[in-house]
Specification:
A hairpin with a 2-residue loop joins strand 17 and strand 18. The protein has three domains: 3-226, no CATH class; 246-270 and 410-502, Immunoglobulin-like; 282-405 and 509-529, no CATH class. The chain is α+β, with helices and mostly antiparallel strands. The protein has 14 helices and 21 strands. 36% of the residues lie in helices and 24% in strands.
């Protein structure tokens, strides 16, 4: 079976046999590349394990690739860089001056290979993935052109053309770095690169570690570091795309001076509208002592068109709370599909700030959410809905809502105009230069690896008088540990002294338990909050 078939089988069924076969296909080339770069057998084994741990975690996103050879080489490069960085820190900490042991492979190299080998993997990482796969399969794994064609899912003439083109591009990269003499035939040198076989038991142990989580601590640490880098690269790419779509063509002093001469309308903060009261039984809602509340407005089968709606306690509703939600949930075997709509009051007693509320059904197996519409197709404010797949339990379902309503803590700052990037214990941060769109001052900001507690995050502008103006977000994307977004404030650019990334913890919660999953089936619904007990 080829890579695509094996990875698809693993992604869909978590077949350990399929993954073990993938590891056997590529272990020697991954280990050999790691040995070239870290020059230490044990560290190379940790790197190889880390690479396949990452492959297992990203299998769902990679399953459509015909060959994994190029992706694995790029990931091996990132893993080696992370491992060498950690090794350098360890050696400095232990005050050891000795360098890592030279490998047998390095000792056996001839002069052309001594020039090429130190730069080979760096140069390979700069190739497009299709070219990197071709070089890896043909030269680093030692396959014939016919075998390379089969692995890539293309004809033999097409494979030969791709290999020739990839070697030509690799040669140009190596020439620029002066790692190869102009007269050297690179293809001949690549044919002589030693392929160091991995230790006999490494493939089996790496496959087991990747699919069970029972990996060496060093391998897990490398995998975590590489996954963080991969996420940050994706965020950076998205950040640049957002900036490009917004019309930002460059970052520099000239842009800053141009923006400084422009003006925007005076600050204006529209009054926040409050959720309209809904006349439903009290048992459908729960409220914290600070006034934040969540209220279940209705439940139905998904999709709900033409279906009966009911309340949390099973009582039937005369009409649906909304007309349409712009998403659906895929049916999961052994589960039922439901839509649930809630009203959230995020106003905090005695504060002009608003709480953040994130909610879910605690026993769901999958969910999807989107805006909801009325009969005229317009979004309905103050209401939120989810389509969920969950087991059909006689005990019903539990809605859990986490609430962040406390004080904000600043974790990163950026000057009012200039772009910047920062890394620290709170994560890695990127800020673009500001730009003007329709009289609004915009900035693109991103973070990755932000705190293990997944707090609420916001961006604020600090004006020259020290006032804090929360920025509105648009074109945002990400998850709990990484994020990129375009933000704007209604302030003139030259009035902004500083931008601040701030967080606050989700340290309060609400639960509505025993929610009926069927119309007319009565349920004994109860509510509990963090005011009642410290933990759910």
């Amino acid at each position: 079976m080829q890579d695509r078939e094996l990875l698809t089988k693993f992604a869909q069924t978590r077949s350990q046999d399929a993954f073990a076969e993938l590891v056997r296909h590529h272990m020697d080339s991954v280990y050999s590349a790691a040995r070239r770069q870290v020059r230490d057998g044990q560290l190379a084994e940790d790197v190889a394990q880390a690479v396949f741990i990452i492959l297992a975690r990203k299998a769902q996103n990679l399953k459509d690739r015909e060959s994994l050879a190029g992706w694995l080489m790029k990931t091996t490069r990132l893993a080696c860089l992370d491992a060498l960085k950690a090794e350098s820190r360890r050696r400095r900490h232990e005050q050891r001056a000795a360098s890592l042991a030279q490998s047998r492979m390095e000792q056996a190299m001839s002069s052309p290979m001594e020039e090429v080998a130190p730069e080979l993997d760096r140069a390979m990482s700069r190739l497009a993935e299709s070219d990197r796969s071709a070089v890896t399969l043909r030269y680093l794994q030692g396959k014939t052109t016919s075998e390379t064609a089969e692995c890539l899912g293309i004809s033999q003439p097409a494979a030969a053309k791709r290999i020739f083109r990839a070697v030509h591009r690799l040669r140009k990269i190596l020439l620029r770095s002066r790692a190869i003499a102009p007269a050297v035939a690179l293809a001949a040198v690549l044919d002589q690169i030693p392929r160091v076989p991995a230790p006999a038991a490494l493939a089996a142990s790496a496959a087991t570690a990747a699919t069970t989580g029972a990996a060496a601590p060093a391998a897990l640490a490398i995998a975590k570091g590489v996954l963080h880098v991969m996420t940050f690269h994706k965020i950076l790419a998205a950040m640049l795309l957002i900036a490009a779509l917004a019309g930002v063509t460059g970052i520099g002093v000239g842009t800053v001076k141009l923006l400084a001469d422009q003006t925007a309308p005076p600050p204006a903060t529209p009054p926040a509208a409050q959720p309209a009261p809904v006349d439903l039984p009290p048992i459908s809602s729960a409220t914290l002592s600070n006034g934040v509340s969540i209220q279940i407005l209705g439940i139905s089968e998904s999709p709900p068109t033409g279906k009966q709606w009911w309340l949390a306690n099973g009582d039937l509703l005369d009409s649906p709370p909304y007309t349409r939600m712009a998403t659906r949930i895929s049916l999961i075997p052994g589960c039922i599909a439901r839509e649930i709509v809630v009203a959230i009051n995020d106003s905090v007693n005695g504060s002009t700030d608003h709480a953040a509320v994130r909610w879910f059904l605690s026993n769901s197996r999958g969910s999807a959410s989107s805006f909801i519409e009325n009969k005229t197709g317009k979004p309905i404010p103050h209401m939120d809905a989810q389509a969920v797949a969950l087991p059909d339990s006689p005990a019903g379902a539990t809605l859990h809502a986490d609430v962040a309503a406390g004080k904000w803590t600043t974790i990163c700052t950026s000057a009012g105009f200039g772009s910047s990037s920062q890394s620290g214990p709170n994560g890695s941060f990127l800020f673009s230069n500001i730009f003007i769109v329709n009289g609004q001052t915009h900035i693109v900001a991103a973070y990755s690896g932000l705190l293990p507690t997944h707090p609420d995050v916001r961006l604020v502008a600090i004006d020259r008088a020290g006032n804090i103006i929360p920025a509105a977000g648009t074109h945002t994307a990400g998850n709990d540990s990484s994020f990129v977004g375009e933000y704007f404030v209604m302030l003139p650019p030259n009035s902004i002294r500083q931008w601040q990334m701030q967080t606050r913890p989700f340290n309060q919660w609400i639960e509505i338990r025993g929610i009926s999953l069927h119309p007319g089936v009565k349920a004994n619904v109860t509510t509990v909050t963090s005011d009642d007990q410290p933990n759910p």
